[in-house]
TrEMBL record:
Its main location: cytoplasm. Pfam families: GCP_C_terminal, GCP_N_terminal. The lineage of its organism: Eukaryota, Fungi, Dikarya, Ascomycota, Pezizomycotina. InterPro entries: GCP (IPR007259), GCP_C (IPR040457), GCP_C_sf (IPR042241), GCP_N (IPR041470). This is Spindle pole body component. Residues 321-694 form the Gamma tubulin complex component C-terminal domain.
Length: 737
């Protein structure tokens, strides 16, 4: 019977354990006592579990879609269950050699002693079965509709094994630790293919957290569902960045688009790959998250200092940033003025032509309301020509770059170009959905920047979208201010021309008009003052301070790693040369800068942007009605001078326009108060650390936001000072604050 027990434990079928749930064994084996039957029942459960486990593990190691699961299943099958088989052989050897620890007097082998030799395997074998079912759940025929047999992913396997090391049972902890080492070793082999050579794993790529994104196979993205929990999002972004960069370098070399210094270093590339591989091989298992993150950072910086600095030189980075600052953030005021003037002239010509077209073909006139991309392109080209004419004696490299890469067009929905810089996830401030891009021309337009590799190592499509939103926001404020200021240039609107003493009607009419438009001029003055101070505050203080701070950070040399721990030292020798920041750190700093800038420009506050957008629209309506009223009044004056008298139609038009103008003025008045009231609320809310976007400090060398922006107290003080000055001078003023 002992021989039968040992054979059954080894995984062979035995009549002793034919059916553990039946009572037939009492008739077939009447000589077995109840106590022995109870002992055999525990051995039977262990034997059955061993057979089921071997069969299930063999199917997993042969057909499971995850390479990690196959590795762990093979380890359980060939290593852990082999230890159980060795225990069986050890027990058999003790019986054959008549070991006193197992064989008693008269060569009697107690069944309880044999069963006791396997007591420590019951919990372990049950745990192995639980893990195997976690890898590939068994189909339950009775509940097949409720329990689908879905295999797990590699990330789930690693997370499960790392969690099982904390159960508190020493034997389970030991087994889980050993299996976690196997799983993480297989995962590191997949990872090494990506971060050493920029290639997806040859086997099990569908189970890796980096996937090909797009039909061209040139862009990649990460799937957080396939990412083990011990890998932080920052580390995963760095891994994605490293592989993307290597892939781009390889693509550039194939296209012969890089310099000899980059493309001709075959031995240097091999040395660098070996250095990075040695860093991965030196990692202890199971992986320690902090040490793993530090190793990935070293590989990233080593790659940047040895390869990517030649691929993305600082001169190109500086040129792109200057282009964004000059033309998207309106660092060049002449660009904003030229673009607004060109847009206004085209809108006016369109309105004149549409007025004639409405009488001929109303349907065609309505279709012509939308602005085509070709017209926007022509308008932008005229702006470039005007700027180039001003600097005809000098060569402006930034302007030339802008002419080649900046376009003005209608926004395209759902356009998203993946880029390497999308890999880094830093603190972000989402721009509100309030649209300011429909004020320059009647239809929505936006300024966009086209870029390709290697610029996409630090610049992403989302960054350009944010720049476009900021540009539309600043242009809308500048445009309204410019249109309001232009009214003061109309002499007939501000002063009355001399009339003869006999012409009393003209003098009385002028006096009546002056009295009627006094409130309009006061409201326009207040709106002009608010827009002027807001534009000066945003462009002169917030943008200038933030951009200068960020530019100083980008041009400041980065500190090299210690040569003892840096993989770069294996290639470059002692790191004494000043090194520029690696593209990923630059991308992270740039994204943090952009988030803090949108926060300081109040583009993250829904209430303020909504009130400001309403105010700008009402100011446009008010200016349009005021201009219309001035034209109607001029027509009345001409009719009076001709001696024909004022026509009833013109008088009715004047009355109607005056009424609409007064309504628009009241809306602007309430809009001004709403904007200033929201500024007051923001001044109370943004105090202390809330004055600026508080970004959690990351690894050493990260960009710190400019601490001078975010508060609106200086803007409110300027508005208050302007009100006091106007009131002290006795001029008509509007109580903004």
């Amino acid at each position: 019977m002992l021989h039968e027990v040992l054979l059954a434990l080894s995984g062979h079928p035995s009549p002793l354990f034919a059916d553990q749930n039946s009572q037939t064994d009492q008739k077939e084996f009447p000589l077995i006592s109840p106590s022995e039957r109870a002992l055999l029942r525990s051995i039977g459960r262990l034997s059955e579990l061993h057979r089921k486990l071997k069969s299930h593990l063999e199917s997993i190691s042969a057909a499971h879609p995850s390479i990690i699961c196959r590795s762990v299943a093979s380890s359980i099958l060939h290593t852990h269950l082999a230890r159980f088989q060795k225990r069986i052989l050890d027990v058999e050897g003790k019986i054959l050699t008549k070991d006193a620890s197992l064989v008693g007097a008269y060569e009697i082998v107690p069944l309880a002693s044999v069963v006791g030799e396997f007591d420590d395997w019951h919990r372990r074998m049950a745990w192995y079965w639980q893990i195997a079912c976690f890898f590939q759940p068994l189909k339950d025929a009775s509940r097949e509709q409720q329990r689908p047999s879905t295999p797990c992913s590699s990330a789930q396997v690693i997370d499960k094994l790392r969690a099982e090391t904390q159960t508190g049972f020493p034997d389970i902890e030991e087994a889980a630790t050993q299996l976690a080492k196997v799983a993480e070793t297989a995962w590191l082999k997949q990872l090494s293919s990506w971060i050493i050579y920029g290639k997806l794993p040859a086997f099990g790529a569908h189970d890796f957290f980096i996937h090909v994104d797009g039909p061209d196979g040139q862009s990649f993205s990460k799937d957080n569902d396939l990412l083990p929990t011990f890998v932080s999002s920052t580390t995963a972004s760095s891994i994605l960045f490293i592989g993307k960069s290597l892939h781009q370098v390889k693509r550039h070399r194939q296209a012969k688009m890089v310099s000899i210094a980059v493309s001709g270093g075959g031995s240097a590339d091999a040395d660098l790959a070996m250095a990075h591989l040695s860093l991965l091989a030196a990692l202890p298992l199971p992986l320690i998250p902090s040490q793993f993150s530090r190793t990935i950072s070293e590989i990233r910086l080593s790659l940047s200092q040895n390869v990517l600095q030649q691929l993305l030189p600082m001169s190109l980075t500086r040129q792109v940033l200057m282009c964004l600052r000059h033309f998207f953030l309106l660092g060049r005021g002449d660009f904003a003025v030229a673009l607004i003037n060109e847009a206004e002239s085209r809108v006016q010509s369109r309105q004149q032509s549409m007025g004639r077209l409405l009488q001929q073909d109303p349907v065609k006139a309505m279709q012509s309301l939308s602005v085509k991309d070709a017209e926007l392109h022509q308008a932008l080209q005229q702006v470039w020509k005007a700027l180039a004419a001003e600097d005809s004696e000098t060569t402006d490299a930034v302007l030339d770059y802008a002419r080649q890469h900046i376009s003005l067009s209608t926004p395209k929905a759902g356009t998203s170009r993946p880029s390497s810089s999308d890999s880094f996830e830093s603190a972000s401030a989402d721009v509100v959905s309030t649209a300011f891009n429909d004020l320059l021309v009647p239809s929505p337009t936006e300024l966009s920047l086209s870029f390709s590799s290697p610029v996409d190592l630090f610049l992403s499509t989302r960054d350009v979208d944010t720049y476009s939103a900021i540009n539309s926001y600043l242009l809308a404020i500048r445009r309204s201010h410019q249109k309001a200021s232009d009214l003061w240039r109309r002499s007939p609107a501000r002063r009355d021309h001399p009339v003869t003493a006999q012409d009393g009607n003209a003098r009385q009419r002028n006096r009546k008009r002056t009295t009627a438009t006094r409130k309009v001029w006061a409201t326009l003055s207040a709106a002009n003052f608010l827009l002027s101070e807001t534009s000066a505050f945003f462009e002169g203080e917030i943008i200038t301070g933030s951009c200068s701070h960020f530019q100083e950070w980008t041009e400041k040399p980065a500190t090299n790693f210690d040569p003892d721990v840096s993989a770069a030292s294996t290639v470059d020798g002692p790191g004494e040369r000043p090194a520029q920041r690696d593209p990923e750190t630059l991308a992270a700093g740039h994204r943090t800068f952009l988030a803090s800038l949108t926060y300081a420009l109040l583009l993250t506050d829904t209430i303020y942007t909504r009130e400001l957008r309403t105010l700008l629209g009402n100011i446009d309506n008010m200016i349009a009605f005021f201009t219309r009223l001035l034209d109607v009044q001029q027509k009345l004056d001409l009719e009076a001078q001709d001696g024909a008298g004022e026509s009833p139609h013109t008088v009715e038009a004047e009355q109607h326009t005056s009424l609409e103008l007064d309504r628009a003025r009241k809306k602007v008045d309430s809009g001004l108060k709403a904007v200033v009231n929201r500024l007051r609320q923001l001044d109370l809310q943004r105090i202390g650390s809330l004055r600026y976007l508080d970004v959690r400090p990351g690894e050493k060398g990260d960009f710190e936001v400019w601490k001078g922006g975010g508060g609106v107290d200086r803007l409110l003080m300027k508005l208050e000072f302007g009100r006091m000055v106007e009131g002290g001078m006795g001029t008509a003023s509007f109580d903004l604050v």
